[in-house]
Amino acid sequence: MINKVYILLFFLLVTMSVSYAQINPYEFDKVLDSIATVEDIPPYLSIEDLWLLRNYLFAKEHYKFKNEGLKEFYELHYDLVGIHDNVSDRFTNRENKIINELKRREQILRKEKTYDVILDHQFSLQNGVLVMNGDSAYRILDKRARYIDTRQLGSELYSIQIESDYRIDIIGCCGTIGVTNDVIKQFLFYKSSGVLVEVPDQITIGKTIDKVIGDKYIFVLNDIFSGAHDLEIYDLKTFELLARVQQIESVTYIDSEYIEIWCFTDQEAAYPYKYVRQYKFENGALKDMKVEQKVNAEWYFAG
To answer: Mind listing the pLDDT tens digit of every residue in the chain (303 residues)?
Structure first.
């Protein structure tokens, strides 16, 4: 049976690097009004939720944020301009309790993201050092290193990403608010052998490993906020770049040796249509099938 897995490349954020608060950021007042005591704070809130909600209380008092993302976010969407360097004396007793509880929960969640477990193997990030099973250490030469995020890429293969702190991304084309952090270093961990391999920056920085095919090839997408992704294919063992295709419309993984790729071309078509061209990746090589067709691509123009 043919196993098909599709990449749907609508104007969406790359999910490996961007996550959304579970609270609608435009309903902060509604949420705060529902909190009479700290016991009323919803238990499911993410780090992003807690961070934005807590700082909203400061923004309402016109606190002058040093964080440019927070400053832009509250000014742009709430017209709350920073004036004061210190607003701690402006909070009510209830607000102080809410702020302290939000911060406490945020710190707990942040701490939990500094370590993870893959089967019997333990990984932790300690003062810029990735520690494996309590002794094997890998120094991360980036002061922004804050968190670990692990992901299974195959039956034997896992990704361990070292990420920066959270920041705000405001996507102007659709008014979306994203809370994201940057992947600054990445490792591949082989379950059976226990070997940890550093992934080169050209595969990590500003990109996302979408899939590992047949324990041979790494399919990598560039991190973009909207529009069509570019695709790069690397050799898993050597990290050599094998092929690059720009403006991807879709990728269909038929099996480990046969992947069908459609990408947008420069050929003109009336809105909402675009022309796409077919490629195949077989046995480690990319082949132009010299086949083009017209598709409905409204999302492309929106992005």
So the answer is: 344 444 443 333 333 344 556 777 778 899 999 999 999 999 989 998 999 999 999 999 999 999 888 898 888 878 899 999 999 999 999 999 999 999 999 999 999 999 999 989 999 999 999 999 999 899 999 999 999 999 999 889 999 999 999 888 765 555 566 788 899 999 999 999 999 999 999 999 999 999 999 889 999 999 876 678 999 999 999 999 999 999 999 999 887 778 999 999 999 999 999 999 999 999 889 999 999 999 998 888 875
pTM of the model: 0.83
Q: How far apart are CA 13 and CA 16, in angstroms?
A: 9
Sequential DSSP letters for 221-249: EE--SSSPPPEEEEETTT--EEEEE-SEE
Q: Which residues contact 200 (CB under 8 A, 6 or more apart)?
A: 239
Distance of CA 9 to the CA centre of its chain: 15
Cα separation, 61 vs 83, in Å, equals: 9
Instruction: Tell me how far apart the alpha carbons of residues 21 and 42 are, in angstroms, rounded to a whole number.
Output: 13
**Type and span of the H or E element at 296:** strand 285-296
Q: Which helix (H) or strand (E) holds 286?
A: strand 285-296
Residue among 211, 255, 254 nearest 232 (CA): 211
- HSE-CB at 75 with a 13 A cutoff on CA atoms is 12
